[in-house]
Amino acid sequence: MTDIDPWGDVEIADYSATMEGFGIEPIGPLADRLPDNRLVRRGIVFGQRDLETVLDARDRGDPFAVMTGLMPSGVFHFGHLAVVEQVRMFQEMGAEVTLCAADIEAYATRDVSLEDARELVVEEYLLNYVAAGLDLDRTDFYFQSGAGNDHLARSKLFSRYITENEFEATYGATSPGKISSALTQYADILRPQAPENGGPKPTVVPVGIDQDPHVRLTRDVASRYRETAYVKPASTYHRFMRGLQGGKMSSSDPASYIALTDTVEDAKRKIDAAKTGGRASVEEHREKGGTVEDDMVFELLAFHLVRDDDELERIRRKYESGAMLSGELKQIAKERLETFLRDHQEKREAARPDVERYLAEHGFGEAT
Amino acid sequence: MTDIDPWGDVEIADYSATMEGFGIEPIGPLADRLPDNRLVRRGIVFGQRDLETVLDARDRGDPFAVMTGLMPSGVFHFGHLAVVEQVRMFQEMGAEVTLCAADIEAYATRDVSLEDARELVVEEYLLNYVAAGLDLDRTDFYFQSGAGNDHLARSKLFSRYITENEFEATYGATSPGKISSALTQYADILRPQAPENGGPKPTVVPVGIDQDPHVRLTRDVASRYRETAYVKPASTYHRFMRGLQGGKMSSSDPASYIALTDTVEDAKRKIDAAKTGGRASVEEHREKGGTVEDDMVFELLAFHLVRDDDELERIRRKYESGAMLSGELKQIAKERLETFLRDHQEKREAARPDVERYLAEHGFGEAT
Predict the structure, then answer these.
(1) A185 Cβ under 8 Å from any chain B Cβ
(2) Cβ <8 Å between A183 and B180
(3) Looking at the domain assignment, is residue B359 inside a domain?
(4) What's the domain range around B93?
(5) At a CB cut-off of 8 Å and minimum separation 6, what does B40 contact?
(6) Same domain, A107 and A179
(7) Do B176 and B319 have their domain in common?
(8) The model's pTM
């Protein structure tokens, strides 16, 4: 079983082993019950647990929810888009949306002040979420630090239902900050099902596999908690984009990612410096072709920048055949990136008044 | 250094070693700055840390506070009275009083439901506290489960300031329930100093030595927390009454204590069954005298039932000289106990309407 640390930067080499170890199923035939979706078609969203509970509720016309959290400890980059797109998809399917700004966790485990967290949440997350299509007015957005008496008290009551051994087996040795944060996350994940939010309902949490330990223990809490009933939360799993220079994409290494607020010039420079699957010489490349699996520029195209499958396939073939050079692939990426960023950043600024109005209306106008 | 487990039933054999190990000072000359007090005179309250911060504030006419918590996991017995009497003393000196009902802790570490905890708090604690002289209308009483968003969020923020090593060194290996409860206790102890309660002020927490680990780590949190200022909390320490049959007094063993709601008949039976320091035969007793140090009945007289020092001294001399038999000592105890319990239980019932009014006025009318 692969060890997973939800607080670390994790690169999962072997998704199948991880899936098997933790009882994660492939999306498989459930794909047909989801709206047609690039992430699923391309295997970027590759796994799920109990997703049918959510789809069944949708089919029956019963309430269901999608929940996600954001950790305000850095900028919003392309690696974050897979979650946002799924949240938007489930919202369009009729899910209630719960969006948690994990400012207590950032404070306790990443040394981010509440003030800095608040600014990051607004500037890096909310504006980008809305620009990416989230309907904030139909979202239960909250900061952990303002989650409410009952929510925070519940996270402490949940502590009864996880033993020390389970905690250590799941997370390894952990600091008070991490234990306390994990308990908060269980309440966050179960928030759509809280009495004040209408009680038990199927809920899906789109996560990277590194967050699965939280999902698993939340499922244990959901089935053991005696005060109110919970449906065990479902989850989907997406592949991590790798960093632009190969290896992991890390918020602490700006060369490894393109932020959605990067200038077009900076973004293009990062593409120029990215690791490709091209050959050592033009001659060799023409002869043997590029390797898309090792090409971080192709990965960016495949994850986000080329929406049409046929077009992506044409690019792949030309690149693998050697007809397209790495420089030409980069040129395509830079053009798409420029269009994407200009469009996104325009939407971002258009979203600003709405986000500010939402924050003011919900009493988040001032940092506390 | 003596190991202390704040969640266990602890018998501290050697108070001096414990005091030295943890930097607890004797009450010493500070006794002169306290109201004349049986518990201090008799060395029942034997130690303190930073108590002068509270006395200095009192002398300057500045705000100061006394804080205590109650764990609703059993009945209220004579072993609990030393804390209540100190709280009343500090309240009469002008301290703001904060009284915490630790229902989350009882739930997470003792498997007590919130409903049972609520009933125990009212029936076993509030009524007895008020009967023992606490002025509830000048008390910030709260349940942890309703401590408020900011209080509960703060307890989570505090987790940043205690390392895993400090936690383990202080408490030993601990479950999520205990870690989460300890963090709640830090917020409880610092509650009188919270921004919503007027900010930093000297605060004294009367505790048994078993609770000192919480006080020590709260002092660390108080000095490390960056968001708002705190004065490190002060503390007083009292000797534990031993159980009626020798050994420890334990809430899980009704023969070991006399509850303040015991019937006079039950209480007398417990005295009859109590361990004494008498000799094996009347002849031997007349010759050698009783040993007050080994006499649980004398301990009860000395702690609570005989308020006059001269009278207690006369009883001691007669008992140690052999002039008084254990049966006669028990007879004195039973008479005093009857008076004490009848008076206390009368005050308890007289307090009921006030307690119910207080609970209703403060929104605690219904269990949540």
Answers:
(1) no
(2) yes
(3) no
(4) 15-240
(5) B27, B31, B34
(6) yes
(7) no
(8) 0.92
